[in-house]
Amino acid sequence: MAEADSERRSRRRQMSKDERRAEIIATAADLFEKLGYAGASMDDIAAAVGIGKPTLYHYFRSKSELLWYMHEELIDGLTAAHRARVERGAEPVELLRGVIHDFLENIATRRGQCRVFFENHRELPDADLAVATEKRTRYEAMVEEAVRGGIADGTFRDVDTKLFSLAIFGMSNWAYQWYHSDGKFSHEEIADAFWDYAYRGLRP
Description:
By secondary structure, this protein is an all-alpha fold. The chain folds into 2 domains: 1-59, Homeodomain-like (Arc Repressor Mutant, subunit A, Orthogonal Bundle), CATH 1.10.10.60; 63-201, Tetracycline Repressor, domain 2, CATH 1.10.357.10. It has helices at residues 2-14, 17-35, 42-49, 53-59, 63-87, 92-109, 111-119, 126-152, 161-173, 187-202. The termini are far apart. This is TetR family transcriptional regulator. Keywords: DNA-binding, Repressor, Transcription, Transcription regulation. InterPro entries: DNA-bd_HTH_TetR-type_CS, Homeodomain-like_sf, HTH-type_TetR-like_transc_reg, HTH_TetR, KstR2_TetR_C, Tet_transcr_reg_TetR-rel_C_sf. It holds the Pfam family TetR_N.
């Protein structure tokens, strides 16, 4: 036991600042999943990571700053993945299918982080919330544009782009409430099924 603790301390000493931040974020996300954002304290996070509270505050000044970093990591990742598909000339079908797969991939690999992303972003300080809201709105507009593109080229029937985008988000996002890695379907299979259901409603 003492040897294992010594190895962990040695590994932490060798971590870069970014690696330590990533470890703290991942550990905090697990705690938020188990205890809820309100239920997990900075003391809990420090203890779970295995560092002192002053060290934790060296990396994150508050729990809301942790929430901010979690939100930024997710929304920036979703936006970058979608933009990369657009830039390589992906068709609307691939773009929207990718949106669903991106959400399910994140839910499967970052469940706690997704929970606070969906449930707690409004608890960010006002200035951070304004930036977060702008980024979310921009991402939603990109998805709406993909729907609009499919309507324009005849791939999709004429639907309300805002309403259909919200349907995709609602169907995909809610999976964080019930998805389990040991369930009947993998997250890839769920994403494929969701897209099949959505696409059936879009076909001319």
